[in-house]
Amino acid sequence: MKIKFALLGALSEEVAAFKQHLKQVKHVTWQEYEFWLGELFGQPVVITKSGVGKVHAALVTQKIIDEYHPEAVIFTGVGGALNPLFEIGDMVISNELVQHDFSAHPLFPRYTIPRFNRTDTFHLFLADADLVQRAQQHTHSSQNVFVGKVLTGDQFLSRSQRAAHAHLTEELQGDVIEMEGAAVAQVCTVNQLPFVIIRTISDKADDNAAIDFDAFLSRAAENSVGIVRTILESYAKS
C-alpha cells in the first residue's frame, strides 16, 4: 500500500478516534511504537502515537518517512492558547512554527538552529500552504478555526510561569504553545515533505491548564477527526 498521509498525535486519546474510522487495518510495531496502516476517508494512511515531547515526535516522524514514504504529514492534538482571542474548543492551523526553548546564544541568535556543514540555519518553519488552505475549508457551527503561529518546547506552561515566558507573546508573537509541532516541522523540512500541525485549544496556559487539558482530550480528538476528514476528502474532489 502506497501511503499518502502520515497522521500523528502525541497521546493515545489523540489518535484513538482516527483508528475507529480506519479500514483494512494492518498493525505494525517497532520498539515501543505502534503503527496502524489502512484507509481513512478514502486515503491510504499510517497512524501513530508519537509520545510527548520534541525527541519522541522527531524520532517517530523520521521513522515513518523512512519506512512508509508518505506524501505529507499531519500532526494533530491539543495546545494551550497564547492568543487571548482563542477560546477552549477553537482550532488552530499552523502557518509558522518555532522551537521557543532552543538557544545557542551567543554563538547564534536565539531560537536559531544551526545545520550540519551548512551556512544557513533554521528558525521559522513554514507549514505547507496547500494543506493549510485545505484545512481552512473545515467548518463547524460551534467552533472557530484560525491560522496561527505555533510555539514548541519541552515544557507544559501554566500561568505561574507566564511572567518568565513573556517572550512567547511579546517577542515571538505566538498564538499556541505545545510540545511537538516544530520538531515534526524540522524533520519534514529537512526531508522536503509537506506538513501541517493542527491544534485544538484545550486550555489557556493558566492555573487551570492541567484540569482543562485532561477534561478536554476526547473532545479534541473528535475535532481532529473532523478537520483531517476535511483535508483527506478534499483530495478526492480535486
Q: How does this structure look, described?
A:
The protein is of the alpha/beta class. The model has no long low-confidence stretch (mean pLDDT 87). Strand 2 and strand 3 form a beta hairpin. The protein has a single domain, classed as 3-Layer(aba) Sandwich (Rossmann fold), CATH 3.40.50. The longest helix is centred in the C-terminal third of the chain and has 29 residues. The strands form 2 sheets. A 5-stranded mixed beta barrel has the order 5-11-10-6-12. Helix content is 32%, strand content 31%. 41% of the residues are buried.
What brief labels describe this structure?
single chain; 238 residues; alpha/beta; Rossmann fold; five-stranded mixed beta barrel; 6 helices; globular
The largest pleated sheet is described as: 5 strands, mixed, barrel
Strand percentage: 25-35%
Q: CATH class, anyone? A: Alpha Beta
Sequence of strands across the biggest β-sheet: 5-11-10-6-12
Structural class: alpha/beta
Distance between the termini: 21 Å
CATH superfamily: Nucleoside phosphorylase domain
